[in-house]
Fold this protein.
Amino acid sequence: MEGGHVLDFRHEVIGRGHAERLVPLIAELADGGRAASIFVGCGPGSFAGVRIGVAAARALALGWGIPAYGFSTLALVAAAAAGEIAAEGGALVVMEGGHGQWFVQPFAADLSPRADLRSLLPDEAILADDALVVGNRAEPFVARRGTGRALSALPDARAFAALPPAALFADPSPIYGRAPDAKPMVAA
């Protein structure tokens, strides 16, 4: 990024194969992706995809001797709709959460979070009263609730420049959004 503009990016929606596709995507970027710092989406999202992305960012930062910073996927989705969110005075970001749940987080007009990220069943999620709903589950959310305006969106690096500085954090690590499915074995 230079002067608030993304110089180069790759955006692909894939179901599986994150690990196999990530490093070649980085290699296709200008200068092989080499930069003064790395910014990585830390989730929530695909369990494996988030872990792969964060691990790759941290490894490249270590190898290149540069800092790495993380940000929330929901904050990036909000940044993509910054103009609409500012005009509306805020919005709720709703993304697929797996296991029948949705990741939800409300954002203020300035894109600061108004509450923590939550993983909720749809009937509980629709109790939120934001008029504008953004994300890949925005349309089902508004249809289920019966009111509001849906703006369908996926995370996209081109929205990164709209993220407020407070959305970035050092030492990126995965944001899972809900408790793990696996449970530790109980000793006999």
